[in-house]
Write a structure and sequence with these properties.
single chain; alpha+beta; binds zinc ion
């Protein structure tokens, strides 16, 4: 089973602007405390944190399965609860199409990244 992550934006008075932090489902993972001045900044940080986990996990396994039982196609970032809860899931193509606002996580092109190094 492909590993999934959930990041929750925690705040005293969400979605009112105020101190916000990210809570990650990965045991021991404490997302860096960065200024999150607005709900949109918090959402960007949550999606970025999930993307980091997804990229660190490497290529999707060929036998990765979608929750519906289909063959998973990609890692996808989705959100729920008005953008307060973010998930990284592996989904098959029909499920990606059926998920509003699904963001497919593109694999990093490692060669291009290396070329940029001195
Ligand atoms: Zn994390
Ligand atoms: Zn599916």
């Amino acid at each position: 089973m492909e590993k999934l992550w959930t990041v929750t934006i925690v705040s005293d008075r969400y979605p009112a602007p105020g101190p916000m932090a990210l809570r990650c489902s990965e045991p021991g993972c404490r997302p860096e405390r960065v200024p999150l001045p607005s709900p949109s900044a918090a959402r960007t940080a949550a999606a970025g944190h999930l993307a980091t986990h997804g990229h660190r996990a490497g290529a999707l396994r060929a036998d990765a399965a979608c929750g519906c039982g289909g063959v998973a196609e990609s890692r996808v970032i989705t959100h729920a609860e008005a953008g307060r809860v973010w998930h990284l899931a592996v989904l098959c193509v029909p499920c990606i199409r059926a998920t509003p606002d699904a963001r497919v996580l593109r694999p990093l092109n490692v060669r291009n990244v290396r070329r940029g190094l001195p």
